C-alpha cells in the first residue's frame, strides 16, 4: 500500500460531508484549503488578537495562558458562563456542518469546540512539537491564520492512517496500569503514557502546506506534530477542541474502559455506528458526571460547614463513605 500524500488528504470540493467522513475514516485527517472566507478570516485574526491579549489577566476567568515554559498560547473557554461572544469564532467553529460531523464522530453530550486555542509560535530553528497522539481523545478543528506554503514555516502535519497504532499503544499502556478498569488522571502513572514513542510501522509524516483560511480536521489519535519553524519566523493558528462528555477531564477524574475515552472514535471509524447516551458507555459516563457533581457539592458543603454553619460530622462522614463505596465498584 502506497503512503498517503498531501493530495490524498486534501478535499478540493469544500466541506462535502461524505468526502470529509471518508477522509477521516481512512486517514484520520481532512484538509479543506481556504475554507474560511476572507471577511471571516480577517475577523478571526482580530478575535485571535483579542483572546491573546487576555491571557495574562488574572481577573479574566475564561481565558488562561497555557504552554508553560515551552509555548505562549491562550486558551479560551467558549462555554464559560462569564465568557463574551466572539462572533466569528462561533460562526467558524460552530458551523452547522461541523456540528453535524461532531455529533456523528464524538456523539452527544460533547463539548462542541468549547476549548479554543489561540497559538503564536516564533521560530527557534526547531520543530514546534514532536510527533505524538493526545493523551485524552478529542476531535480538533484547526485554521491557519497566515499562509503556510513552504517547509520551515512550522506547518502542522500528520502520519495519515496511524490512529490504530496509537490506540494499540494507548490500550497496552492502560492494561498494564489500570485498576478495576480505570486510571486516575493526574496520578504519577498517568504521565507514563508513551504517547510520544513512535511505533514500528508508523506511516510517513505529511506536512500540510496550505493557504491562510484552510481548515484541518483531525482525530487526535492520529500521530501529529508541528514541523520545523525557521528562526524568527512566526506561526499563527486558531484551533478548537471537541471532547466527549460535559466537562474537561481534570485531576482525580477517571479514564475508564467503558467510556468514549477508551473507544476513541473507533466504532464510528470502522462501522459508522453512532454513540448512544443509552448505551453502557452512556450510562457509565452519566455516573461519572453525577459522581463529580456530588463530590463537588459535598466539598462545598464542608467548606461552608467550617465558615458559616455546622453540618454534623456524621453526615459528612456517611456521605463521603457512600461516594467511596460507589467509586470502588
Outline of the structure:
This protein has 329 residues and is an alpha+beta fold. The chain is 35% helix and 22% strand.
Topology (elements, then pairings):
Layout: H1 6-9, H2 17-26, E1 29-32, H3 38-53, E2 63-66, E3 73-77, H4 87-93, H5 96-105, E4 110-122, E5 126-132, E6 139-144, E7 156-158, H6 163-177, E8 182-184, E9 206-207, E10 215-219, E11 224-229, E12 234-244, E13 254-256, H7 260-263, H8 266-271, H9 280-307, H10 313-327
Helix pairs in contact: 3-4, 9-10
Would you kindly provide a written description of the structure presented here, covering whatever features stand out?
- The protein folds into two domains: 6-268, Jelly Rolls, CATH 2.60.120; 281-327.
- The protein has ten helices and 13 strands.
- The protein starts with 5 loop residues before the first helix and ends with a helix.
- Helix 3 (38-53) packs across helix 4 (87-93).
- The longest helix is centred in the C-terminal third of the chain and has 28 residues, at 280-307.
- A seven-stranded antiparallel sheet has the order 1-10-6-12-4-3-2.
- The protein is of the alpha+beta class and 329 residues long.
- The chain has helices at 6-9, 17-26, 38-53, 87-93, 96-105, 163-177, 260-263, 266-271, 280-307, 313-327, and strands at 29-32, 63-66, 73-77, 110-122, 126-132, 139-144, 156-158, 182-184, 206-207, 215-219, 224-229, 234-244, 254-256.
- One of its GO terms (molecular function) is 2-oxoglutarate-dependent dioxygenase activity.
- InterPro entries: Phytyl_CoA_dOase-like.
- Pfam families: PhyH.
Amino acid at each position: 500500500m502506497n503512503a498517503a500524500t498531501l493530495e490524498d488528504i486534501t478535499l478540493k470540493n469544500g466541506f462535502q460531508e461524505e468526502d470529509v467522513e471518508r477522509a477521516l475514516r481512512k486517514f484520520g485527517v481532512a484538509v479543506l484549503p481556504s475554507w474560511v472566507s476572507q471577511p471571516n478570516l480577517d475577523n478571526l485574526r482580530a478575535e485571535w488578537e483579542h483572546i491573546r491579549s487576555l491571557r495574562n489577566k488574572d481577573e479574566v476567568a475564561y481565558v488562561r495562558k497555557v504552554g508553560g515554559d515551552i509555548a505562549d498560547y491562550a486558551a479560551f473557554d467558549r462555554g464559560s458562563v462569564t465568557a463574551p461572544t466572539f462572533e466569528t469564532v462561533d460562526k467558524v467553529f460552530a458551523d452547522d456542518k461541523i456540528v453535524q460531523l461532531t455529533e456523528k464522530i464524538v456523539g452527544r453530550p460533547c463539548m462542541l469546540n468549547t476549548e479554543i486555542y489561540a497559538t503564536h509560535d516564533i521560530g527557534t530553528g526547531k520543530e514546534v512539537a514532536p510527533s505524538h497522539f493526545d493523551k485524552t481523545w478529542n476531535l480538533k478543528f484547526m485554521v491557519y491564520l497566515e499562509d503556510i506554503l513552504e517547509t520551515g514555516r512550522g506547518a502542522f502535519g500528520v502520519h495519515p492512517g496511524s490512529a490504530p497504532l496509537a490506540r494499540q499503544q494507548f490500550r497496552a499502556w492502560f492494561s498494564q496500569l489500570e485498576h478495576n478498569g480505570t486510571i486516575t488522571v493526574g496520578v504519577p502513572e498517568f504521565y507514563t503514557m508513551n504517547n510520544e514513542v513512535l511505533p514500528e510501522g508508523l506511516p510517513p509524516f505529511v506536512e500540510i502546506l496550505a493557504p491562510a483560511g484552510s481548515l484541518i480536521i483531525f482525530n487526535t489519535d492520529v500521530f501529529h506534530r508541528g514541523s520545523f519553524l525557521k528562526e524568527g519566523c512566526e506561526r499563527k493558528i486558531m484551533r478548537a477542541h471537541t471532547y466527549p462528555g460535559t466537562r474537561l477531564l481534570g485531576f482525580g477524574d477517571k479514564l475508564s474502559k467503558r467510556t468514549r475515552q477508551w473507544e476513541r472514535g473507533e466504532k464510528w471509524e470502522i462501522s459508522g455506528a453512532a454513540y448512544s447516551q443509552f448505551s453502557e458507555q452512556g450510562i457509565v459516563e452519566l455516573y461519572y458526571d453525577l459522581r463529580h457533581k456530588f463530590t463537588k457539592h459535598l466539598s462545598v458543603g464542608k467548606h461552608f460547614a467550617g465558615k458559616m454553619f455546622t453540618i454534623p460530622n456524621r453526615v459528612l462522614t456517611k456521605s463521603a463513605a457512600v461516594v467511596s463505596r460507589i467509586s470502588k465498584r
